[in-house]
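Weekly puzzle thread! Below is a chain. First person to post its structure in token form gets bragging rights.
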Amino acid sequence: MRIALIVNKIAGNGGCGQKYLGVANYFQSAGINFTPMFTEKPGHATELARQAVQSGYEAVVSMGGDGTLNEVVNGVAGSGVILGFIPAGSGNDFGRTFGVSSRDTVGACQVIARAKVQEINIGRVGERHFINIAGAGFDAEVGLTANTWGKRYFRGYMAYVASILRQLVFYTPQEVDIELDGQVRHAKVWFVAIANARYFGGGLMIAPQAELDDDLFDVCIVKEITKFELIKLIPKTFKGEHVHHQAVEMHRARRVRISSLAKMAVQADGEVLGILPQEFHIAETKQKVFLP
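Winning reply:
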């Protein structure tokens, strides 16, 4: 099997570049036929992934953070090529669902070497695919802050924690219309998370029951509560215990449409894509992925 390894050296505050040599050595010792490709700018991973598909590679492996993985997904979606990932960024939330950690690069490499493939759902919003979690509102603003201000001053998940605290000062809940497979409800919310996997925001288990092959999103709606109540709720989210709070609703749907009169940011896999209204739906074709 020919594998294209797409590496974002600056991910994880440069930590990905430091880990690359270890990954290359492991692949060589394991007899894996791989070609390294290095990103040079935002969006480049998508270009490289598409080139790899066109060149006949059977698998494309993303090495970086969730943003790099999102770009690679958008390069291979619908192609039939197998996707792999080696977490080496700041958040690395997608891998948490499967116990694949950026702290265990060898373990992530072993997943690739074993070549066990599963088919999972991926989502779509507008022209973009996403593999982990999308959403609108507070979480999108936090993601934008974490990727700019947060990563300048903090490392790893602390960039997300600090960004949450920063946005708590500025953000206020907004009124939205949420359509879940045709059923419309109106609510004033902090945010709506459309989850394919379980974690986002540097370790928040926003959708503890999410399954990636059930053809459904787990939709978490956090309705209006005071900032003090939200601050108390956030620590519970690390263990998925927020789902029992009276202000939290959990739903399942294949198609979700969110609209608002307010200017609310939208994110997919931590990358801010624009503002509402937006429609999110399960992609028709499942994605083959190397998984434990």
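Puzzle host: Confirmed. Bonus trivia for everyone else. Residues 130-284 form a domain with the Tumour Suppressor Smad4 fold (CATH 2.60.200.40).
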